[in-house]
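User: I'm putting together notes for a lab meeting next week and I want to include a structural view of one of the chains we've been expressing. I don't have a solved structure, so I'd like a prediction I can at least talk through. The sequence is below, exactly as it appears in our construct file.
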Amino acid sequence: MKFSKYQLLVNKICFICGKKDCPQMKKSKDYKDFLDALEKGDIDKADKIYNMKFSQFSKSFGHEMEKNLEKNRIPPIYQGVPFDSFDLYQHYSYGNGEALNLSSVGLSNKIRPLVNKDKAFGKSNGSIESRFISQYKNEGRTSFSNAYDFTKEASGIADPLWALGTATISGELKDIQTFPGGIARGNIHYNIRDRFTDPFDTFNFTKGEWNPNGTPYIIQDSWIKPVRFSIDKKIKITP
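Assistant: Thanks for the context. Below is the predicted structure for the 239-residue chain, given as structure tokens.
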């Protein structure tokens, strides 16, 4: 099995001794600088630190690292702490393609509010929800489905939004009721879906998909959001 420094990081295995959760490694400034560079998405800096400080040790202790990687060849388990991008990558490596629901890994509270965030995903105005309601009011459309670049909302490479990359959010307005005074109510049935695949080609330098050491899987979630809004005319529903 060929290992990588990123697999070691995911499994919290020391670059020097090959042991998991090494106390000496945690004290290392170089190691902290390496993690900080990864967190900020500065891959060039992380590679430079690794090559200068750790590569020679990795060669010496490679066999021990291989054994530790084999011991930890299991998908991560949600234990009350929301998954980060490395957990999602570990599931790609060891989860055998099993689908994940955002609720089951503690990420619903991070993802769902984005539909109401103003100017989210680099848009110039409004939120996903406000634009959808305007679409209904102006065109009578009761559904939408669009792809969004979640890396625009990520704080760094460890953020699970970075791991999502481009995912699809769809919605359908149902149970519409109108009331005197130009008031309308309904429920938006939201769905988010992403296929976690090709994690080594974030910027699509290669054609197609490349999955040398993992199995692609589906990340999804669905929820219902009650909405209330004003209308000033009779709306003709558009299929």
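A couple of points you could mention at the meeting. The chain has a mean pLDDT of 80. Residues 139 and 238 are 7 Å apart (CA to CA).

User: Perfect, that's what I needed.
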